[in-house]
Design brief:
Elements (H helix, E strand, L loop, with lengths): L1 E9 L4 H17 L4 E7 L8 E8 L2 H8 L16 E10 L17
Antiparallel strand pairs: 1-3, 1-4, 2-3
Amino acid sequence: MITRIFRVRIHPGMRDEFERKFLEISVPYVETKRGYVSHVVGYPTKWKPDDYMLLTNWTSEAALVEFAGPDWKKAVIPDGMDKYVAACWVDHFQTNEGGHAAPGQPRSGAH
């Protein structure tokens, strides 16, 4: 499984509108894609009042290519959402379920 972490910093003063559209447009857009497993939405803190996060889990790299194209390491911004984006970042991690080591990866603390 691959975990994709999309972080976005929105333009100040657009929080209410962005949150509504993020939940109406961005989240459903991701949920409909083949290979999508799950997601978590992260909301701003007092330290970063304009930053949001969408963590998604995908079955494979092939699923990410199908979702985001061959350059899947870049952000996918659904139509109409780009006006909110001041900056964004995307990171990916090989992940597992249930606390077991991912195939080919040592367990935490293993020597």
